[in-house]
Amino acid sequence: MTAGWAIIGPGAFAANRIAPALNKARNCRLVAVVSRDRGRAEAFAAEHGAQRAYDDLAAALRDPDVDCVWVATPHSLHLEPVLAAARAGKHVLCEKPLATSRGDAREMIRACARANVRLGTGFHLRHHPLHREARRLVAEGELGTPIEAAAEWSVPPSRPGSGYPYTAAWRRDPALALAGITTGTGVHVIDLLRFVLDDEIIAVSAYTDAPAEDAGALESRAIALLRFSRGTFAVARCFRGVPAPRNDLAITGSEGWIVTRNTLGEATRGTVEAHGVDPQVVGIPAGWDMYTAEAEAFVEAVEAGEEPSASGEDGLRCVEVLDALLESARTGRTVQLG
């Protein structure tokens, strides 16, 4: 199966990551791009080889060549295009966080289930070869019982012309972004820990630098202590403005440990260190791109009639943890999750 894709929301992230991934993926083709600004859609289509440009979502969803949509709008604007795509019978890969409320996330899941279309959440870090190897070592018991874990995705200071970290105005608007660094990179850290440990978070205690008395302030620094259902403790960190961030994943078990160095980010890179275990994967295949792998895996899940990795349910779980993190930071209390 070669799936035709439409990108909804042609911003910098879509230009830097989504379009190149779809153009590289062996089972994908970029058919359309959708923006409220027709000129912007046409310029994006011309630059990235999309066949058509639309300023009307309904028209794009009527396009018979569109099988899947990749939603990359501002965070609070995910609901409408996901529901519209489901009604049109299109499969959906939605960027993280899946929604800015649990209610919206549940509505997306229900709508896609009713329409018998697949809903995925854009957690590309699941497709890093070294993260998958860490998950295998945990799953097969080679590390023993997981005792503690830590992961970080922090970003360097923004430099003029760098384009990263992404600095669109909507990211500073709580009505559109919900939060700051936690919705930018923090949710990725949370999901990666869930994925590698294959376990659910049941309690969160967190600090951020957002003043508790200012509901409109967005955090640029956050750290959270997470308790998992099988007893593992974990630390999730995300900071903005770190000169040389060490974006590592570390898992310690009763029989050994593994650390993937500099693997949390947009580029597929990093190294692995381990003690007490013998990893089968210690490098990254030439040309490997997590976003391309994510797109290919999504289409394979659609073809097989299976849930993608990560699913809409995974997206909902992270919205719940994000809510708990922000509540804990605001109130100074540990928040329990069901």
Taking pLDDT < 50 over at least 5 consecutive residues as the criterion, the unreliable ranges are none
**Average pLDDT over all residues:** 96
CATH superfamily of the largest domain, called what?
Dihydrodipicolinate Reductase, domain 2
User: What distance separates the N and C termini?
Assistant: 39 Å
Helix content: 25-40%
Number of strands: 14
Query: Largest sheet at a glance?
Result: 8 strands, mixed
Order of helices and strands: EHEHEHEHEHEHEHHEEEEEEHHE
Plain-language structure description:
The model has no long low-confidence stretch (mean pLDDT 96). The chain is built from ten helices and 14 strands. It has helices at residues 12-24, 38-48, 57-61, 79-87, 102-115, 129-139, 174-177, 181-197, 290-304, 312-331; strands spanning 3-8, 28-34, 52-54, 68-71, 91-95, 119-122, 146-152, 201-208, 221-228, 233-239, 249-253, 257-261, 271-275, 335-336. The protein is α/β, with parallel strands linked by helices and 338 residues long. 49% of the residues are buried. It starts with a strand and ends with a strand. Strand 5, helix 5 and strand 6 form a beta-alpha-beta unit. Helix 1 (12-24) packs across helix 9 and helix 5 (102-115) packs antiparallel against helix 10. It is globular, with a radius of gyration of 19 Å. It folds into two domains: 3-124, NAD(P)-binding Rossmann-like Domain (Rossmann fold); 128-287 and 311-336, Dihydrodipicolinate Reductase, domain 2, CATH 3.30.360.10. The strands form two sheets. An eight-stranded mixed β-sheet has the order 13-12-11-7-10-9-8-14. A six-stranded parallel β-sheet has the order 3-2-1-4-5-6, sandwiched between helices.
